[in-house]
Structure formats: C-alpha cells, structure tokens
Amino acid sequence: MERKVIKVPKKYTYLNELKDAEEVEVSKHFKNGLPVNCLFDKGKTGCGGTTVALTNDKDTIIAMPYVATIKNKVIQSKQKKEDYPFELFGIYANVTDYDILDYINTHEVKKLLVTYDSLNRLIEIIPNIYNDYYLLVDEYHVLFTNYQFRDKAVKNTLFHSKNFKEVTYMTATPIEEEFRLKELSDLPVVAVEWEDVVKPNILSMATNLPINKVCELIKDRINGKTFNYNLHFFINSVDFIAQAINKAGLTPEQVRVICSENTNVGKGKKTNQKKLGVDY
User: Fold this and answer.
1) Number of other residues whose CB lies within 10 A of the CB of residue 56
2) 15 and 47 in contact (C-beta within 8 Å)?
3) Residue 93 φ then ψ, to 5°
4) CB–CB of 166/135 below 8 Å?
5) Displacement of CA 34 from its chain's centroid (Å)
6) Do 231 and 218 touch, CB atoms closer than 8 A?
7) CATH topology for 3-194?
8) I need a surface site. Which of 39, 74, 111, 115 has the fewest CB within 10 A?
9) d(CA 163, CA 185)
10) Based on C-alpha coordinates, what's the Rg of the chain?
11) What confidence category does residue 264 fall into, taking pLDDT thresholds of 50, 70 and 90?
C-alpha cells in the first residue's frame, strides 16, 4: 500500500498552519485543505483537522461517529465566531429535510455536520452531491470498530463515500493494514509526523481478575504510592464501574463517572444512576 509521510517541524502546532509553511514539501499537501482521496493519519489529536475542513471555502460535509461530537462542534463555532467564517449546520434527529434545504439555499458556503447513520439522508435530498461537496469522514477508524453493531450505517458510509469526487478519511488512531476494511484497501495513506509529539509509554498488565487490578491501582494512588496524577479508566460497563467504586471504597468526591443516563435492558430501561448510587 502506498504511504506518504509528511514530517512537520516543531515550530508548527496545528494543521491549518501548514498551508503557509515555509517548507514546500509540507505546504504543498495542504494548500487546498486536507489531503484528498486517501486515508489521512493526522498524527495527533487536537491538531485541528476538522477546523481545516470547516474554515476553507469548499462546500463540505463532515461525517462524524456521534451526535454529541456534532453538537459540541456547533456550540464551539458559535462561541468562537471569529475562528469560523461560515455557519455550521448540524444534522440529527430533530432536524427536518426542510431545515437542511433551507440552510443550503440561504448559505453561499455550506458546512454540514452529519453522523454516519444520517449520511444516506443527505445523499437522497441534495442533488449532484458527489461532485459539488467535499466529504470528510472523521474518525474513520470507528467504521472498523463499530462495524459489527452499526453495520448498516458503516456500509452506507463506505458505499456513498467512495462516490465523492473528493473525500478524506481522517483519524489520529490509524488501523493496522491487515485489519483495514476491504472497501478502503485501495486508498493511499498520508501520514503526518509531528516533531513535537511524545509517544506514550504503554505498560501492559496481565490479569484474570481485572476488577482486583483496578482497585489495586486506585488504592495505591489514594495512599500516595504512585504518581500524583488522576487515574483514567475506560471501561465499557457501568456495572464494572459500580463494582470498582464499591470494592475500592471510593467516595463521591474521589471519583467522576462519564456514561449515558440509561442502559437498555431487555424490554425496559434500567438507569445507570441507580447502579452507581444517587451521590455519584
């Protein structure tokens, strides 16, 4: 697979700076926005990849994995209007087709934010969309990680995205070539290597009792036996989180939980708040 690496000197922090970079080998890739018709590894998070797509003068659709991401980006653009020359339009459940068409007809430069699940909806209502719009598929690694339980959304995104005249699949979490989706296997990779990025030191811990290992780490942190920073656990189970809180004896002041309010259980709903306790 073809792979192009763009080495970025330490003096640059954000992708939108690179179009004016002194180094020709850097700037030529960003003169017209992000590299197109490729898998784009932006090299680090927080470098403003979506900002490049939202601030140039191309009619743009950004396909994102989650509604919350869309809402956050729209709110951010309203709070920092000086950084966003064009109005962003987020598309989710309460937005009608009329709302979308009204935005398109009343804005010279269009910036549409849509989830993978709703991209198909835009295809059906916007004429000549493949030629007139640039598509950025953001966090494209989610197409792989979510394929099993969001297969319809992923398949639609993969099918329609390949029809756009210009499309970029962007991520800061690239997928190994052997696991890459076959629909994207023919695309070249363009990767940014930032001189100022410090690679994390990953330590793997083998255990057949994850809850015990988590509680051990928590207790060592509370007792001052480890570094003086917060511990962050990414766990796809509120039951596990509640068990860890109870087993480690954590008070509400010692822990913060980020999760959805409800979990679908059988025919009804069981609140995550109930699992955690009212004080957490």
Assistant:
1) 19
2) yes
3) -55, -45
4) yes
5) 16
6) yes
7) Rossmann fold (3.40.50)
8) 74
9) 15
10) 22
11) low
What is the rounded distance in angstroms from the CA atom of residue 259 to the CA atom of residue 276?
Answer: 11
Kindly list the domain boundaries of the chain, sorted by start residue. 3-194, 210-276
> Is a pLDDT exceeding 80 seen at residue 262?
no
Q: Is 268 exposed, middle or buried (0-12, 13-18, 19+ CB in 10 A)?
A: exposed
Q: Which two tokens stand for residue 97?
A: 């087709």
Q: Tell me the residue type at 107.
A: H
Two structure tokens written together for 166: 């210009």
Q: Any bridge partners for residue 135, and if so which?
A: 61, 167
Per-residue model confidence as pLDDT tens digits over 84-141:
999 999 998 889 999 999 999 999 999 999 999 899 999 999 999 999 999 999 999 9
Q: Strand 60-64 to strand 268-271: parallel, antiparallel, or no bridges (unpaired)?
A: unpaired
DSSP strand E in the chain: where? 3-8, 38-41, 60-64, 88-91, 111-115, 134-138, 166-171, 189-194, 262-265, 268-271
Angle between helices 210-222 and 238-248 (to 10 degrees): 50
